[in-house]
Amino acid sequence: IKRCGYDGIFFTGVSPEPVYFYMDKGRPELRDAAHVWGKDTLDTERILQAESGGASAHVACIGPAGEKLSLISGIANDGGRMAARAGLGAVMGSKRLKAVVLGGRGRIRARRPAEMKRLSLACNAAVRDQAEMITGIMSARVGTLMRILPTQVAMDGKIYIGLLDKWGTAGMNQIAIEMGDSPVKNWKGSNEDFGTEKSDALNPDVFSDCVFVKSHCYSCPLGCGGICRRNGAAEDTHKPEY
C-alpha cells in the first residue's frame, strides 16, 4: 500500500456486482470481477496478476468461502498465505470485493536511515545467535512442561527464534495447544482434545524434510516459511503453518 503512495485503504458500502480494487501510482480503480467470482484464491491471484502487470502486482483475495460469507474464511496472498482469524474473508465477501491488487513500486524511505540501518544490523545479528533445537517430537513435551509448571521463566527469544528457523510455525502446534492458544474446536478445545500422542503424528520434522527453499515474509531476515516438494505431487506448495 505504501509503495502506491498511501498508508491505508478503506472500503465502505456494498458493490451491486463483484469487483476488485486496483491501484498503481495513486490511481485507484474498481474493476469488474465477474470473471474471477467463484474461483479459488490461487486461480484468482494468477489471473489478476496477469491482468495487472505480472508478478510485480501483489494480490490479496478471497475464494468461494469468503464469497459465501463463511465465518471461518480468510484473505489469501502470495500463493496461499492466509490472514484467516475472525472470518476476515467474509468481510470482503459482504462487500462483493473479490480482491485488492496493488502495483505500486515507490520506495519506502526511512526518516532516519542511519538509525534504521543500525537497528536492522542488530536484528540480523540477533537472529543468527540462536539456541540449538531439540527434536520435533520433544517440542510437544516442552509445551506440556510449560503448562504444568507453577511458574514461567522470562526468555530472551533465542529459543523461539531457533524453533522458527528449524521448523517454522509448525513447531508451535502442540506447544500452543498446551498453552491454550490453538484453534482446536474453534478455541473451545484444549490439550485434553488433542494430546501429545496425536501431536507425535504431526512431528514438525515431517514438514521440514520436504522443504527445498526457504520463504520469507517481507523484509524478515529469518525466513521461517518454506516451499515443499514431494515426489509425485502435481505442484510445489507452501510448508504447512500453525
Distance between the termini: 27 Å
| Integer average pLDDT | 87
Q: Secondary-structure element order, as H and E?
A: EEHEHEEHEHHHHHHEEE
Reported for the largest beta sheet, the result is: 6 strands, mixed
What does it look like?
With 242 residues, the chain is of the alpha+beta class. It contains nine helices and nine strands. The strands form two sheets. The protein has a six-stranded mixed β-sheet. Strands 7-8-9 form a three-stranded antiparallel β-sheet, with no helix packed on it. Strand 8 and strand 9 form a beta hairpin. Helix 5 (136-148) packs parallel to helix 7 (173-179). The relative contact order is 0.11.
Q: Briefly, what is this?
A:
By secondary structure, the protein is α+β, with helices and mostly antiparallel strands. The chain contains nine helices and nine strands.
List keywords for this structure.
6-stranded mixed sheet; globular; 9 strands; 242 residues
Write the layout of secondary structure elements.
Elements: E1 19-24, E2 27-32, H1 41-51, E3 58-61, H2 64-67, E4 75-77, E5 81-83, H3 88-94, E6 97-102, H4 113-128, H5 136-148, H6 158-167, H7 173-179, H8 196-199, H9 204-208, E7 211-215, E8 225-228, E9 237-238
Parallel strand pairs: 1-6
Antiparallel strand pairs: 1-2, 3-4, 3-6, 4-5, 7-8, 8-9
